Each structure stands twice: as C-alpha cells, then as structure tokens.
Amino acid sequence: MIKAGVVGGTGYTGVELLRLLAQHPQVELAAITSRGEAGTLVSDMFPSLRRRVTLRFSEPSDAPLDGCDVVFFATPNGVAMHQAPPLLAAGVRVIDLAADFRLKDTGEWAKWYGQPHAAPEWLAKAVYGLPELNRLAIVGAQLVANPGCYPTAVQLGLAPLVESGLVDLEHLIADAKSGVSGAGRKAETSSLFSEAADNFKAYGVAGHRHLPEIRQGLSRLAPRPVELTFVPHLTPLIRGIHATLYARLVAEGDIQALFEKRYADEPFVDVLPPGAHPETRSVRASNVCRLAVHRPQGADTVVVLSVIDNLVKGAAGQAVQNMNIMFGLPETEGLWHLPVLP
Ligand SMILES: NC(=O)C1=CN([C@@H]2O[C@H](COP(=O)(O)OP(=O)(O)OC[C@H]3O[C@@H](n4cnc5c(N)ncnc54)[C@H](OP(=O)(O)O)[C@@H]3O)[C@@H](O)[C@H]2O)C=CC1
Ligand SMILES: CC(=O)N[C@@H](CCC(=O)OP(=O)(O)O)C(=O)O
C-alpha cells in the first residue's frame, strides 16, 4: 500500500483528494493537515467522508509526513516551495497542486506570483504533470508540479493543433469559463453567493498567471514559442471549466482525424464525434476531458471545445493520475468512475 499524506485537507482540492484517495485500492491515508482544525475528525468537517476516513487533522508541523511515500500539497501558491524540500530530501515523493514548481523560469515565477522562488534547486528537478503531454518524464519523477485547471483544459484542447504544424502559432485564443470552486474554499467577496450567482464576468484580461504556464507548455510542443490570448471568466457553476479555443489554419488537414489519432490511447481524453458540443455536466466528478472539434462554415478557423471538472482533471484527479504513473500503477486505478449526471 502507498502511504499518502495531504497538506491542506480543509480546502476544495484537499477534500477532493481525500474522496479519491479514500477509494483508491492501493492507498492508505496516513496524514491530513490543517492549521486551524488540528484535532478535529476529518469526517466531522466533511460528513461525505464519514465511515471511510477516520483520521483527525494534524498541524502541518506535527503530521507524520516524512513517513509517507507520497505527500500532496493542496495549499496556496508559495507554501510547497518552503515546506516540500525537507520531505524531498528525506526521499518522500511530492505532488504539488499549486503553482510553485510549474514555471521553469524563476524570473517568470517572481513576476506572476509576486515573490522570489524559495527552492530553485528543486524547481530544476520538478516534472510538469500533464500525463497526456509528458508521461515518460513523470514515471521517474520525485517531484511533480500538477498543472493549473485552466492550463489543463487549454493545453489538452490545443496540443494536437500545435504539434501538427497546421495552425498559426502566434495568434491562438483561449476563452475559458470556470465554476466558483476554482477560487477555492477560503472566504472571498467575489465567491459569495450574491456576487457569483446569476452573474457572468471576465477577469484577468490584462494577464492571468495561467498565461505563462500555458505558453510554456504549448511552446514545448512547437518549433518556436507560441503566442496566446487567454481570457478567463467566472460563471455561476460550482464545478466545471469550459474552454472555447480558436486557431487559424495555415495548411490543410483532417482536424477531426488528427484529434482522434492523438488521443486514441488516452483513457481520460474523449474526442467527441463531429458537430458535438460537450457540456461541463458530462465530466462532473470525473477525471475526463471531453473535446469537440469544429470548423465553422469550412473556413480557416478551427474551434475546439474542451470541458473538464476543475477539481478532478483540473486538480485532484490529475494528481492521483500522476501518483499512479510515479508508482507504476495502472493509470486509471481509483479514477475509473463515471461522471455524476444530472
Ligand atoms: N480549486 C481549484 O479548482 C484548483 C486549485 N488549484 C490549486 O490548488 C491549491 C489549493 O486550492 P484550493 O483547494 O482551491 O484552496 P483552498 O483555499 O480551498 O484550500 C487551501 C488549503 O491550504 C491550507 N493552507 C493554507 N495556507 C497554508 C500554509 N501556510 N501551510 C499549510 N497549509 C495551508 C488550508 O488549510 P488550513 O487553513 O486549515 O491549514 C486549506 O486546506 C491552490 O494552490 C490552487 O491554486 C489547482 C487547480 C484547480
Ligand atoms: C475561478 C477562479 O478563481 N479560478 C482560479 C484558478 C485556480 C487555479 O487553478 O489556480 P492555481 O494556478 O493557483 O493552481 C483563478 O483564476 O485564480
């Protein structure tokens, strides 16, 4: 059995990790931290976990994390880069759900996250954990940087086009909408029911911190750096991301066949038949990304529709998928459940 610890067990990605890990046949939950709830039974805070998770929350400094085989950080940006290095030095494998180890350039990290990087030596060793684009590197990794939710939906939707050389790499567009759980469980005015319900708005148009992450990931697939306009929106869903992606063709090709071939062996990427419109509810609570490819009026703009559950394929599910790869387990272990509908 793999002994797993979770730092940040009271947040949305933390409780989603607990849901997935508690049902994983090869995992034993060994430690779950909270700074404010140490001593509280996890199932008292989250009755959804009653009779399945019997642990109490521990203070991060008291939790037996160095006795774990793997520790997940489900903490705000800037926490894991301070707390993970001693665990890594002790041989523990770490999967960070935050952004601390995603951007390879420390200057870029400081610019977008407003603080200097505290562990550049581990940054160099970290592997970006988007299995469909980077599987082989994850196999041997000790430290995996789990991608952001928007970057997962956008990169999976644009990767086949960028790899193909059929599209203009300088004018990609990602128009993405997220449910409110994407902002986390912490109290914030913009997440209040009266602010977010019955409302729809763009934010971060001048520059969102997921832009450099998407650019870095897609540029690795291309002969030169890609340029992208990325506009996130907040939509009154609890879970879900819907990304509408635009690319201009510079050469002819069968785009539907390109996507079907690219993802034919991927258990968690579903390319829908021509003309389909994927819905966020078709992936709710599952680790699946559903894609549909369109070419309106047969013109030279390709439109890709990409949906994921931000808490699963966009965070906790992808983290478990990465753990499975790191530990040589079947990739679908503990993740092969169907979405919840309606
Ligand atoms: N929500 C989403 O859809 C996605 C989130 N992410 C990323 O995952 C991470 C977690 O997100 P989310 O679960 O939404 O966030 P939440 O705000 O819901 O939870 C954050 C958790 O971190 C703990 N925490 C906060 N500060 C510290 C600290 N200094 N030391 C130890 N623990 C700390 C909190 O617990 P306590 O205060 O009890 O200690 C809480 O459990 C973030 O980096 C986020 O950007 C990534 C992809 C998608
Ligand atoms: C709706 C909403 O607020 N979403 C978050 C993205 C959450 C996420 O994935 O952020 P990290 O890169 O920090 O992991 C945002 O736009 O800030």
Automatic annotation (TrEMBL):
Enzyme class: oxidoreductase
Main location, first listed in the record: cytoplasm
Gene Ontology biological-process annotations: L-arginine biosynthetic process
Keyword check for Cell membrane: no
Enzyme Commission (EC) number: 1.2.1.38
Statement: the UniProt record of this protein carries the keyword Cell inner membrane: no
Entry's localization field: Cytoplasm
PROSITE patterns membership: ARGC (PS01224)
Domain of life assignment: Bacteria
Pathway participation: Amino-acid biosynthesis; L-arginine biosynthesis; N(2)-acetyl-L-ornithine from L-glutamate: step 3/4
Gene Ontology terms, MF aspect: N-acetyl-gamma-glutamyl-phosphate reductase activity; NAD binding; NADP+ binding
Domain Semialdehyde dehydrogenase NAD-binding: 3-141
HAMAP family: ArgC_type1 (MF_00150)
Family named by the database record: Belongs to the NAGSA dehydrogenase family. Type 1 subfamily.
Protein name (database record): N-acetyl-gamma-glutamyl-phosphate reductase
Gene this protein is translated from: argC
